[in-house]
Amino acid sequence: MSNLVAVAGRKGRGAHEASAATIDLYAEAPLPTERGLFRAVVFRERRTGVEHVAMVMGDVAGESVAVRVHSECLTSEVLGSLKCDCRAQLDRALDLIAARGRGALLYLRQEGRGIGLGNKIRAYALQAQGHDTYEANRLLGFPDDLRRYDVAAEMLRLLGVRSVELITNNPQKLSGLAEAGVPVRGRIQLPSPANPFNVEYLRVKRERTGHLIQTDDDGTARTA
Ligand SMILES: Nc1nc2c(ncn2[C@@H]2O[C@H](COP(=O)(O)OP(=O)(O)OP(=O)(O)O)[C@@H](O)[C@H]2O)c(=O)[nH]1
Ligand SMILES: [Zn+2]
Predict the structure, then answer these.
(1) Does the keyword Cell membrane apply (predicted)?
(2) What pLDDT is attached to residue 158?
(3) Which single residue of 46, 68, 92, 175 has CA 20 to 30 Å from 150?
């Protein structure tokens, strides 16, 4: 039995010891990547069958682990869309974990902040008519953000992670994860590269939801 599965066997800590499991550790394997050797660990939601994957490097069963909780964005990460900053954030987070030699990226299948791919494209259609990213969600009958962080918290517990340094600019992720029972020891800033197609999206994130995106003097997101 591998270390990870052994760790999974001792899940359940503190306030969450009694909470019923909603995901299972389904499969894991070494995954050589352009950044070095990771382990891909797949978790499956019991109720829906949705699969999430953790990309793990080094020994993460411990404290102050660099963790990225990343939401799927097919349009940016696979298709090269310039309307958001997701692929750059995914790349930079994996770079950072590889540079440290220890950490985990949780790739959560909650496309479009939880509304799904088709609805995100419907939202993009409304954005093409002049609505911002959050107005478009509301016109479709969705809240700004449908994401929950309890699955991420459960994945971290199953991996043996006891506390995290969270790689994010999103204050709601910091509080969401803490509320789900994960001790957050710190935050690691991510660059949000601006381009002509996402500059408005980045501005709205900063102003509406308080994203901690670093800006240049003229107010645009830093391209570092
Ligand atoms: N509904 C909707 N979802 C979007 C839109 N643009 C990007 N997304 C989704 O938003 C998610 C990324 O969320 P963001 O709010 O950009 O960033 P974040 O991950 O919460 O914050 P960071 O941790 O700082 O990156 C992905 O699931 C994208 O598919 C949009 O215009 N509408
Ligand atoms: Zn995106």
Answers:
(1) no
(2) 98
(3) 92
Q: Give the chain's domain count.
A: 1
Residue 26 lies in a domain: yes
68 belongs to an annotated ligand binding site: yes
* H or E element, residue 125: helix 117-128
Tokens encoding 119: 């609805």
**52 labelled binding-site residue:** no
**Residue-range definition of the domain harbouring residue 178:** 3-110+151-195
Measuring from atom 6 of ligand 1, which residue has the nearest CA?
A: 84
Assembly ipTM: 0.93
Q: Give the angle 73-115-153 at the CA atoms, nearest 5°.
A: 75
Residue 19 pLDDT: 52
Residues 6+ apart with CB under 8 A from 36: 57, 98
SS3 56: strand
Per-residue pLDDT, 20: 66
Q: From the first residue on, what is the mean pLDDT of each consecutive set of 10 residues in the chain (224 residues)?
A: 39 42 95 98 96 98 98 97 94 98 97 95 95 92 89 97 96 94 95 84 78 57 44
Instruction: State the pLDDT at residue 198.
Output: 86
| Active site positions, annotated | 145, 147
Kindly list the protein residues whose Cβ atom lies closer than 6 A to any atom of ligand 1: 71-73, 84, 86, 89, 110-113, 115, 120, 123, 133, 137, 168-170, 173, 190, 205, 211
